[in-house]
Structures are given as C-alpha cells and as structure tokens.
Specification:
Layout: H1 3-19, H2 26-36, E1 43-47, E2 52-55, H3 57-61, H4 84-90, E3 94-100, E4 103-112, E5 115-124
Antiparallel strand pairs: 1-2, 1-5, 3-4, 4-5
Length: 135
C-alpha cells in the first residue's frame, strides 16, 4: 500500500472509531485475537448491529477494519443470505456453502458464549483455494 493509501486507511479507521458507541469487554477481544489472530482466513468479531469489533490479521489484509459495518465490505451479493440473525436468535452456529465467482466458500457465524449480542464470522475458501494447495 502506498503512503497516501495508508494515510487514507488510517483516517478512515479513525472516523469509524469516533462513531462507535459499542462497549465490549476487552477480555473478549483478547480471547478473539488469541484464538483467531493467526487463522489463515479472514475472521471478524461482530456486534449484532453489524459493527466490526475486532479483525484478525488475514481480515485486516483484505481491508476490513474495526468499527466498520461488516455488510459494507465487499460486493453486496456476497452478503445475500447472511445467517447472522439466525445464529444470534438461536444462539447456535450457522453455516452455508456458496459459490462466489470462481470460489467455493463455506461461511460460518458463531455466537459468542455469554455475549448474546456478539458473533464470530469467518469463511473457509475466501483467500485460499484449498483445491489447488499442494499436500
């Protein structure tokens, strides 16, 4: 990323942080990073309002930032059939397999035990083509 692009990203993140009114226990964010920080695919900790609370390294690499609305990142069609409401209302994990472009992605929504307003969202196949990986 260029210096100008980096500066724009920092300013955008600052604007998003200024808007946030959601308070989340810092221990939850630390636990998210401990468990998902090095996961090779993008993963987010998200509030029921769809505000992104935390992202792992792979998610930051594709441009998702803390404080943004998760549904505004990427193509709108990528968010069709979102199962976040289902996962939150039932407090049970939800997943679906989708074809997006030339990718097959399995998306997951996992409620966070003890925090009914939070969920973890990630997909397998978002940034890695597992069919082409050498074993």
């Amino acid at each position: 990323m260029s210096a100008n692009g980096s500066a724009k990203a920092i300013k955008a993140e600052q604007r998003v942080k200024e808007k946030s009114k959601i308070e989340v226990d810092q221990r939850v964010i630390e636990a998210f990073q401990l468990m998902w920080g090095n996961f090779p695919e993008p993963a987010t900790l998200v509030h029921k309002s769809r505000e992104v609370i935390a992202v792992n390294d792979a998610c930051a690499a594709i441009g998702r930032i803390k404080g943004m609305n998760c549904a505004t990142h990427g193509a709108p069609e990528a968010h069709r059939g979102c199962l976040a409401d289902q996962a939150l209302s039932k407090q049970q994990s939800a997943f679906k397999k989708i074809e997006f472009g030339d990718k097959t992605i399995i998306s997951y929504w996992l409620p966070v035990e003890g925090y009914p307003e939070l969920f973890i969202h990630f997909g397998v196949g978002v940034t890695i083509d597992y069919d082409s990986v050498q074993r």
